[in-house]
């Protein structure tokens, strides 16, 4: 693969994210440091959580996480777990990432009561009072004495929008 080919996004190829901005070859591509900083600033999840993991971009702004590492680039259909959407005004964690890592979050976690949680997993938007930051939140509910992350919500102007994908919505 030529150096020019690795300087562009390709929806058929995974490219490992550069560690820092100084190593960036593709304009606009997130770096490992930016991702670790974002998770820490937004949700309070420490960078050490991601030791032993590599981050990959496929297409434009679709970030995947993989335990371990591979040579880059990689031409396969899927790699690890979808993790984060970048290259938009506000970065958005995936439902998978929220459910796997949300238990470690100590910031921007909105805990819902049973009725609210049921509405959320059905995909319904709802008006709620929230004193925290607006934007993408990890939404959780207490189950069996512990906080269980349900997914990602978008909180704006007093409304929580459920971002549970249609195929994962449930009527409990």
From TrEMBL:
* Entries under Gene3D superfamilies matching the protein: 3.10.450.720
**One Pfam short name:** Methyltranf_PUA
> rRNA small subunit methyltransferase F RNA-binding PUA-like domain: from which residue to which, for each copy?
117-168
In which domain of life is the source organism classified? Answer: Archaea
- What positions does the domain DUF7122 occupy? 2-80
- Transmembrane residues, as ranges? none
Q: Where is this region: Disordered?
A: 1-22
**What is the protein name stated in its UniProt record?**
rRNA small subunit methyltransferase F RNA-binding PUA-like domain-containing protein
Native species of this protein? Haladaptatus pallidirubidus
Q: What is the lineage of its organism?
A: Archaea, Methanobacteriati, Methanobacteriota, Stenosarchaea group, Halobacteria
